[in-house]
Amino acid sequence: MTNARRAARIGRRRWASSRTFYSDAQTEMELTGGSTTQLEMDLGELPLPATTRSLPKEDTVLEQGDLFDLLAESPEPTPQTIFEGMEKPIFEVAFADGRNARFQHANTLLESLEAQDIHIEYQCREGYCGSCRVRLVEGDVHYIEEPMAWIDDDEILPCCCIPKSALKLQ
Amino acid sequence: MAYTTFNRNEFDTFEQPMFFGEPVNVARYDQQKHKIFENLIEKQLSFFWRPEEVDLTNDRKDFMDLPEHEKHIFVSNLKYQTLLDSVQGRSPNVALLPVVSLPELETWIETWSFSETIHSRSYTHIVRNIVPNPAVVFDDITKNEYIVRRAISVTKYYDDFIELSNYYQQLGEGKHTVNGETIDVNLHELKRRLYLTMVSVNVLEAIRFYVSFACSFAFAERAKMEGNAKIIKLIARDEALHLTGTQHMLQIMARGKDDAEFAQIAEECRDDVIGIFHEAAEQEKEWADYLFKDGSMIGLNKDILSQYVEYITNQRIGALGFDPIFEVRNNPLPWINAWLNSDNVQVAPQEAEISSYLVGAIDSEVDTADFGDFDL
């Protein structure tokens, strides 16, 4: 593996912190041993009910209201995208060819799309090369950094913007 | 119109087009018709680097260990890039400065050319490090038929424009007899040549460089010639910015934003533009053939490189508002983006691979085995 790739990997690993979740919604989860179980999930911040018990490490059966650690590569909300008095920017992003994604908790639209396996050509990632240029069919974006690359009136550079509404791209 | 180094006429800079208006007088940047060029200058200055900042001691060792056919790939690309930057280090100044009319654009052209001279100096730095006699590499540039062939198409648009532009400045518009030859100087033809020159520069920066970039990064993917890749990364960053500058100039022209005649010329020249892109792509594919004539390298061969040329040609011509001219839809070398990316997305600055962090540092590996014969 090349060193440049290794650098990227180390950076990403930072997101993979262990966090405690506790839930309300119905989700199906596969556990070791192949059995499935229903558990409730809600990632909101609810106060802990008195009946909650912490899950012993060797216990494989989850019950309603159980507290468990989730080890997953889910990014934490970044401070850059949260402003007081403003809703968290969470918007659907649709592509003309049918691919869908949801922008949330990302620094830029490009990062968000990449995290959802939608790969867009890129180079500079700060708005001066224009490699990531896509056509904006519907919606509105906010530029974190004013783009320097030449773009047409109906084009955007995902590397330096975040959505202000649901987007339709081509 | 005769060129003057300090135009004494009074005029409103906002009334001036990019080219062929009043010659620039005061180099002032408080009033800018096209702010983008000032932004490009700022960015380019912030990119400043010197070749000597990158340590190449490991590259010498790597180069000696390369098989002959890979040495050929490496050295040939270096020669070609040297040619391209030799052209770009002077031609924008020679061709464009006499006809430019905006101070911020004039300074951008100078800044742009200057950064190309850094690239040229970095090739000497690389060559000095990998071969005992740099002349072997440099002397071949004007002799090698594969390089010469491409040099002709890189420079012919510049030369055609400069020739007519010289007559225009000395004699003005009209029919003139010079050394028994009749020369027809008209501004429309001059502007047409300027537009085509800009397109050919765009092709040079956007397509021609990228074949060499791909090879350099393919070596570095195998942890070979990493110092060279570091330099190429810095060059690629500069070239991306120059490309943006050229695209802006072309689009301002094509939209007739400050000179309606250019919009008409752009419309007339659509087929020529496609032709220039096509010719460049075909030449680069021939070059790939020459590079890999004695064998390909791991991760890269003639077919993949040719597909990459087609892909990047589609991308670049698309940026100028044209339809793609090749079939390829996906990037056949997706890993290259990570190499082309500038260093601003620093994940861990202590990583030696981040060249901006390595400025002035020496990264020469020492293995514990090196101390094996030490006795105390």
From TrEMBL, chain A:
As one GO molecular function, the record gives: 2 iron, 2 sulfur cluster binding
State the source organism's domain of life.
Bacteria
Q: Name one Pfam family in it.
A: Fer2
InterPro entries assigned: 2Fe-2S_ferredoxin-like_sf, 2Fe-2S_ferredoxin-type, 2Fe2S_fd_BS, Beta-grasp_dom_sf
**Residue ranges of every copy of the 2Fe-2S ferredoxin-type domain listed in the record:** 91-170
Q: What is this protein called?
A: Ferredoxin
- Identify the species of origin: Thalassolituus maritimus
